[in-house]
Amino acid sequence: MTPQFREKPRVYLDPKPQPNNTHPMGLNIISRRHFLGRTASLAAGAFTGPNLLLRGQDKAGKRLNLAVIGANGKGQSDTQGVTLDHNIVALVDVDSKRLDEAAKKRNKHHLDSGKEAPPAPKLYQDFRKMFDEMANEIDGVIVSTPDHTHYVAAMHAIKHKKHVCVQKPLCNRISEVRDMHSAAKAANLVTNMGNQGRTMEGQRLAKEWIEQGAIGTLKEIRLWTNRPIWPQGPLVKKAAECPPELNWDLWLSSEANEPYFEFELPSGMDPKKNKRGNSVHPFTWRGWWQFGSGALGDMGCHIMDATFSILGQLIPEQIDVTSSPISDTCAPVWSDLIYHMPAGKHAALKVSWKDGSKNGVANKPEISPHMTSELAKKAFEKASSGMMFIGTEGTVFEGEAYCSSPVIYNEERYTQVRLDMKAGKIVKTEARSAVPNNPQGEWAHHIVNGGLPASNFDYSAPLTEFVLLGNLAVRAQQSVQWDKQNMKVTNAEAPNKFISRPAYRDGWKA
Question: Is the pLDDT assigned to residue 417 strictly greater than 50?
Fold first, then answer.
């Protein structure tokens, strides 16, 4: 049966296919230039924010002075998102070797892009020293450090009235998320979180399809990831010699001082399969509650992003949990969560989350009942991470983390939805990103031009809270009922100790 759709005011539908911009299943994806020209008024109405004093420069040619804290790894790709259009005046990393590598990679990126080598940024290992010496030279700061340093680094930037773009999750403690959000808002800064999917076309399409009846009534959402891809579980610390290039004291930042350590691999784990090493620096900190936020914190702000948007940015009322054994220090090897969502844009429903593997088998949900074809089954089997929005008449499926290219099953229904889009029965209602696929570039764009990035802290702070509530249940090892107004668990007292960081070392909290 052909689905019936309620007519809505036409926002934009591209009447002609744009060459080389098609969706994998044949849906036309418009060019960025063409789209921006047609949706400027929509974007202007949807995003408002502070204006930048351009210091006499023409807005179109304005180059910001930016600093990057956490310069290598993810920080390097974040740098590449802005370095061709703006000035990177400072790079910060606690590892001197990685800091030098980051500076060289940035220089090479310019040369590979056909640009002349830019002036070399100042290099620091301590971001506090950077602010002391050159705060008046900086317009904005990108924070790409391990999770435990997001809060202290970003709050130093906010204290100095610098616009901030922080990697996901914003923090690994709910109280820090709220504090950072409040401080940035009071300072009237342009903020953003580095979750790429929020800048992409696919997430908007999925929301528009569901809101306009493409899969009937939304009944359930299933999410999953193959993380952790690093050692996790009840790990045991062991003393080790700190690498000479690493300033361990600065790496700990606000955490209590302790000797550098490595860790013993979990029993039963084949050392040959551990490609990430047994030191928390530079990657495997993610599984430690002290420094990271586990598989959920690593991927939740990506995989739960579309869900959070589609459900109207609601916070769950209760989270149920089952997991492998945990410890006071480390996240589990796998976990199963059920978020009980209140009614809002849609009726009350459950959002399930699965991560890790059980006995060597990927911990994935059951396939949607609408995905019965061989094509659908293969797509689900191939997906190591993904999401299913299950309705009464069909399922929106995405087999990766960002919701960049969603499709609808069954295939006949997806064909009908594409026809209805062309006929104007399903229309574009969501404002699109000014800089698709580049949250750092989007943030810089809005500092210069005004307006707000799509994942500004008004959006990404509650999204991060949504994600971290799962970890609250995991750490408590019980169902938790959440009072968002008072920021507390109401059905048990013990989980509340995980809402805030126990303490901060002197000299680190701004």
Answer: yes
Same-domain check for residues 203 and 182: no
Whether residue 190 sits in one domain with residue 205: no
Instruction: Tell me the residue type at 93.
Output: D
Contact 97, 57 (CB under 8 A): no
Residue 264: other Cβ atoms inside 10 A? 12
Q: Phi then psi for 388, rounded to 5 degrees?
A: -130, 120
Q: Which structural domain range is residue 175 located in?
A: 46-196
**Do you find a cis peptide bond into 406, omega within 30 degrees of 0?**
no
Residues 211 and 115 in one domain: no
% of the chain residues with pLDDT over 90: 81
Q: Is residue 331 part of a domain?
A: yes
72 and 164 in one domain? Answer: yes
Q: Which residues contact 226 (CB under 8 A, 6 or more apart)?
A: 355, 356, 357, 362, 384, 385
- CB-CB neighbours of 308 under 10 Å: 23
Helix (H, G, I), strand (E, B) or coil at 94: coil
Let me know if 287 is exposed, middle or buried by CB neighbors in 10 A (0-12, 13-18, 19+).
Answer: buried
Q: Report pLDDT digits (tens) over 354-384.
A: 999 998 899 999 999 999 999 999 999 999 9
Q: Which of 419, 440, 461 is the last residue of a domain?
A: 440
- Amino acid occupying residue 321: V
Question: What does DSSP say about strands 218-225 and 386-391: parallel, antiparallel, or unpaired?
Answer: antiparallel
Cross-strand pairs, 334 = 356
Q: Is the dihedral of CA 14, 391, 474, 265 positive or negative?
A: negative
Nearest to 93 by CA among 246, 243, 244: 246
C-alpha span between 25 and 391 (Å, rounded): 20
Give the pLDDT of residue 234.
86
**Pair 428, 400 in one domain:** yes
Domain termination residue (choose one: 392, 421, 440) = 440
235 inside domain: no
Question: What confidence score (pLDDT) does residue 278 get?
Answer: 80
Q: Which residues contact 183 (CB under 8 A, 6 or more apart)?
A: 155, 158, 159
Measured distance CA(471)–CA(331) in Å, rounded: 9
114 and 216 within one domain: no
